[in-house]
Amino acid sequence: DTINSAYLLKKNGIPTIFLFWMTTCVPCQFEFDNIHKKYATWQKEADFNLYAISQELPKYASRFAPYVDRKAWQFEAYYDFNRVFRRIMPEGLDGLPQTFVLDQNGNIVYHKKKYRMGDENLLFEKVKEIVLFGTRHAKYDQTVSIANEARKLLTKSTKDQFKDLIKYLYLACT
């Protein structure tokens, strides 16, 4: 089956996760296995879309369908044979795996490269934040306002302290 990328990118009022991967990417395999184990529970907790978009090299394209069939994921997987997403996503999807979370309005609100064990938990926390609060809420706006005021007072030597402050303020607001 062929699907138009516009279908996947449409604004549908719920968060959407895009996982970009390749069958030859070992970190991708670990990430997907861990997401697969938790996906059914996640679906009970929050309404969201999840699409696995393969960026398979043309010479390995024949591996895609058997691999997906064997894994039997509960989420949808597609092969981007025209490499459309490489042209439209930030940084051209340089390096895999890459994950993007779009809010209910189709805006990218989270992006990460690579995979470390446990990243899937942070991913789902981002989805739950959007479901519960929308992309922005009063505490977030307040945090941004405070952070912008603090940034005006900083010198280069305090940039790392600023990053720690932002983390603290974010955690305090969630």
State the gist of this model.
By secondary structure, the protein is of the alpha/beta class.
Characteristic key phrases:
174 residues, 5-stranded mixed β-sheet, 7 helices, alpha/beta
Describe the SSE topology.
Blueprint: H1 5-9, E1 16-21, H2 26-45, E2 49-54, H3 61-71, E3 76-79, H4 84-88, E4 98-102, E5 108-113, H5 119-133, H6 138-152, H7 159-173
Parallel strand pairs: 1-2, 2-3
Antiparallel strand pairs: 1-4, 4-5
Helix pairs in contact: 2-5, 6-7
Q: Helix coverage percent of residues?
A: 40-55%
Order of helices and strands: HEHEHEHEEHHH
Instruction: Provide the residue-averaged pLDDT.
Output: 81
Shape, please?
A: globular
Poorly predicted parts? 137-141
In angstroms, what is the radius of gyration? 18 Å
What would you say this structure looks like, in words?
It is a single chain. The protein is globular, with a radius of gyration of 18 Å. By secondary structure, it is α/β, with parallel strands linked by helices. Strands 3-2-1-4-5 form a five-stranded mixed sheet, covered by helices on one side. It has helices at residues 5-9, 26-45, 61-71, 84-88, 119-133, 138-152, 159-173; strands at 16-21, 49-54, 76-79, 98-102, 108-113. The relative contact order is 0.16. The N and C termini lie far apart (41 Å).
